[in-house]
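Work Package 3 (structural annotation) set out to generate three-dimensional models for the target panel prioritized at the project kickoff. During this period the team completed the workflow that converts sequence records into discrete structure tokens, so that structures can be stored uniformly alongside our sequence database. As a representative example, we reproduce one entry of 668 residues exactly as it appears in the project archive.
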Amino acid sequence: MPNRLAAETSPYLRQHADNPVDWFPWGEEALTLARTGDRPILLSIGYSACHWCHVMAHESFEDEAVAAVMNRLFVNIKVDREERPDLDQIYQTAHQILQQRPGGWPLTMFLTPDGTPFFGGTYFPKWSRYGLPGFAGLCEQVAAAFRDRRADVEDQNRSLREALASLEASAGAAAAEPDARPLGAAREVLVRSFDARWGGFGGAPKFPHPTDMALLWRRAVAEGDEAARGIVLTTLTRMAEGGIQDHLGGGFCRYSVDERWEIPHFEKMLYDNGPLLALYAETAAATEDGFLRRAAEGIAAWTMREMQSPAGGYHSSLDADSEGEEGRYYVWDRDEVRRLLAADQWAVARRAWGLDEAPNFEGRHWHLKLAAHPPEDEMGLLDSARARLFAAREGRVRPGLDDKILTSWNALMIAGMARAGRLLDRPDWVASAFRAVDFLRAVHWRDGRLLATSKDGRAHLNGYLDDHAFLLAALLELLQCRYRPEDLAFARDLAEALLADFEDTGRGGFFFTRHDHEVLIQRPRPGHDNATPSGNGIAATALQRLGHLLGEPRYLAAARRAVSAFQPAMARGGGWSSLCEALEEALAPPTLVILRGPTGEVADWTARLAPRPHPGQLVVPLPNGVADLPPALAKPETDRVNAWVCRGVTCLAPAAGFDELERHLRAE
């Protein structure tokens, strides 16, 4: 019989609905059972595209004997880390404290009935191997320790709680006035870790780090920093050449297992591809580089084709596995490729995609990379070869789709689609972004409260900091594509929620969870970037921009308090790129350009500004006839375009010609 996970919205939880394990979702039923029965909790956190989560599930959670041990000894709770990032943050941190090493997924934690972890790890095999104990035997040992050494467990729990509390107390405990030192420190950390040969930062495994590259690109554009420019363009080029990009279907996998970007971990996540789309579009627009543009086009095409639901929202991820094997959907046998292609296509494709080299996947298959750029007169043949292989691949068993719709990840893709569509003149991308935000407004915004996730139209779970901050930033991107009063109203609602429901008014910055969220063993106020940007960094930047747009000092003050709270920590090292962007705009407010006049001319001026993107600039097109404008944007209608250029509280006289506008912007 299905267990309690069958009714959940998370595809990951529902994957475990037929396990013999008596799984509970996280909630009061399971926690009460543990407390009243004084039973330890086995907490398993993962996500649907996670390869080793599948391995542990097949080995242990689907095994009747192992499940019997788990059911006898523990209250078993399964959590989707994408739906409950609050729990994942807390227990990953606890794992690092207990084990003195980073965690990962699956995360396997053993908790006392009050939710405090006393032992944990990540993947455990069914039988002892890899230097790891067999899972059933480990369960017996952990349960015995809880039963027979309870005093020691409670002592350790007190120490762990004190350690978690001290982490929070030290995070921004001594606020400082913003200054530029962290910007230079962040740049130096990235320059030192840059891989000049292959691009990216550090060695294998290698992750894209779009937030860090966005910070460097700001330095390149704002200050003419050629070293920063070279790092970004080299990295984006090498990534697009490597196998981390899907050369047939578009989009990027989560990371590369090698330093060359050649063989990825094959899962495709929405949250990577949104910021990467914005980066590829921005650099392509600035450099007129067709190769970078094609990478952006691939991300957008994959997103609209495979990830956008009929209702408008974007799905979460594609699995790394198909038919039980990682990468099986993506890799090729060379003879199969030769059979599928015409002779002239094969002649180009084998050189371009490295098929005349030794197999690069498990010693017997080829995963496509761009080994050599074909000359322009051969691009048509490569494109036709790509279409044939893509059509053939469509007949394979597809990787699993996690079709839940997460507010925060959708917001990252909405921002990427909107910015890329504006910069590269792709109205279809912008339309896709508007469809997604309209879905979130209709389904995830209920009674003045933002919800975190939905599936099949059923939304639930209170929105987190990232949901509010990322969506506010996405709405600001959409307002630069086309002004809609409902988008500005939504942005105001989200800004008010950030101040009312998340702000730490004592120390500055924003908690990850709402003030009325359930009480957990820790309440993080995260400033560091992880796989996604820091919610505090994005909130501070977006509030500053909205504050300047509307002339609202409360938003500016809250953003400044957040930047000040994290300033001392930012000055000590890397990993703060999102907050560095907020710091930069706290020190030098963004340039606001308001265009007002006849519809066609406003569109023309907007298009002429787009190919020269400046990360610290907002262009808001307001054609005649747009109503319900707030006072700060209510510029007079005219029979020809006028442009108002403002920075902070200083505005120049309106420019009545495009050349005059360009002079104003150069002066900025």
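Residues 150-170 form the longest helix (21 residues).
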